[in-house]
Design brief:
- 86% of the residues lie in helices and 0% in strands.
- It has 113 residues and is mostly helical.
- The protein has one domain (17-105).
- Helix 1 runs antiparallel to helix 3 (38-70) and helix 3 (38-70) packs antiparallel against helix 4.
- The protein is elongated and about 65 Å long.
Length: 113
């Protein structure tokens, strides 16, 4: 097995519970979309963005580990790329959490009598 895979594996394994939770939340929102109304849309988008953020973080971690071990780029160049991707990842996460908060505060449809 490649050294870069072995070095990235612990980080990837710790992400599995979060990925499962975001996938479960997204699935529940999509299944209950009629009863939740607009809140389901906000929550689905929020969970989707959090899932995307986690996958982007995992992918960038593996990519940077591979790049560093292959010597494909200078460390300063990798550091700049990591900073930019980290900021983008943080913004995606913040938008996802904001959408989840909007889902909590959104009005639900009146229950059918």
């Amino acid at each position: 097995m490649n050294d870069w895979i072995v070095s990235a594996l612990p980080h990837l394994l710790t992400m599995i519970p979060g990925l499962l939770l975001y996938t479960l939340g997204l699935s529940l929102c999509l299944v209950r979309s009629r009863t939740l109304g607009r809140a389901s849309t906000y929550a689905s988008l929020g969970f989707g963005l959090l899932l995307l953020s986690s996958l982007l973080g995992a992918g960038s971690q593996v990519w940077f580990t591979w790049m560093a071990q292959q010597g494909a780029a200078a460390i300063s160049s990798l550091a700049m790329r990591m900073a930019v991707l980290g900021i983008v990842n943080m913004l995606i996460s913040l938008v996802g959490i904001t959408l989840l908060l909007a889902a909590i505060l959104a009005r639900r449809p009146a229950p059918a009598a």
